[in-house]
Amino acid sequence: MTALFTPLALRETTIPNRVMVSPMCQYSCDARDGVATDWHRTHLTSRAVGGAGLVMTEATAVEARGRISPEDLGIWTDEQAAALEPITEFVRDQGSVPGIQLAHAGRKASTSRPWEGHEPLQPDAGGWDVVGPSGEPWPYDDEAPATQRLTRDDIESVVDSFRAAAERAREAGFEVAEVHAAHGYLLHEFCSPVTNEREDGYGGDFDGRIRLTREVTAAVREVWPDGKPVFVRISATDWLPDRESWTVEDSVRLADDLADVGADLIDVSGGGISPDSWPENAGPNYQLPYAERIGSESSSDIAVGTVGGITTPEQAAAIVANDRADLTIVGREHLRDPYFTLHAAQALDATDEIEGPPQYRRAFGF
Ligand code: FNR
């Protein structure tokens, strides 16, 4: 059996192979209401048809002001959840596992879509005031939207929003809930000393800074079915070695804390906390060493997923065969090739190891 096509069992959920579609914003709720459109249905279901074991939605906002752009998906209303339900059903019908990334963009919210310049949007231009651990705005070239420091009461309501979003996602049929705590968005802004200068219980030392991520993960776990897994995406490093910042050692420690509140897998990404928080070389497998370290050094037996620069079947297969990560998470290659997993089975001479759609049998030969 090819390791890439062995199932991954987490709690009572079995992911049929080790390929996950990475969460990728589509900026396609054209009515700016957070409700999934034909684009989302086509995008997500075609990747399930393409054989990915787990199809994760884009960053799906748990409250309106937590959207990156006005066109992001949301799950703070019943209408938004209802629009996602047929997608989860179809993904499951293909033998794939539907996952949802629950997100809050913090001070990086309220921007235009990438193809419209990714510029900060003021409230009079369709944007809104944003929130963060402090009132310090993201350093845009243009004027940032007003950035408010969350009060203790506001923090409680953010945790409640994540919990309510998870409840809606559960009812909509998702099997994996992923907490987005990476890329310089709200939870990462609390974790990193680069952006968190709070002196109350949600800042200061490591335990204070990770408290919000821990509380959000615990709240999601509380309402997520016992048999179904919770993932957390983290930035393993801020890539800012010259200043006090978030490090891989911090990530190993965080993984243990999150395992403690019921997380099952750490989705290991990186960067995004400030404009200079980028890898020097984003080549093949560029974030794999962090996933490996978290997997081997954390004292819990939490699973790890690796993302970043995975583009070929051989690469993904080697990561799993050499036990370097439990799950390979493929982003941009899935935009180029929705059928990445079916093509991988062909390339690895393993079409008899997967159950592809019978409609496509004559093309792929499973
Ligand atoms: C992303 N990425 C991303 N990450 C995330 O956690 N939530 C998201 O909604 C998005 N949105 C998004 C949109 C688009 C168009 C791209 C290209 C990327 C990051 C993505 O999931 C992945 O981590 C990176 O692209 C690196 O993986 P690849 O592309 O090298 O496989």
From TrEMBL:
InterPro entries xref list: Aldolase_TIM, OxRdtase_FMN_N, YqjM-like
Record keyword Ion transport present: no
Record's keyword terms, sorted: Flavoprotein, FMN, NADP, Oxidoreductase
Signal peptide per UniProt: none
Flavoprotein keyword on record: yes
Annotated region (Disordered), positions in chain: 106-128
One of the record's GO molecular function terms: NADPH dehydrogenase activity
Occurrences of domain NADH:flavin oxidoreductase/NADH oxidase N-terminal (ranges): 4-348
Pfam families recorded: Oxidored_FMN (PF00724)
Entry cofactors: FMN
Source species, domain of life: Archaea
PANTHER family: NADPH DEHYDROGENASE C23G7.10C-RELATED
Protein name: NADH:flavin oxidoreductase/NADH oxidase
Originating species: Haloarcula salinisoli
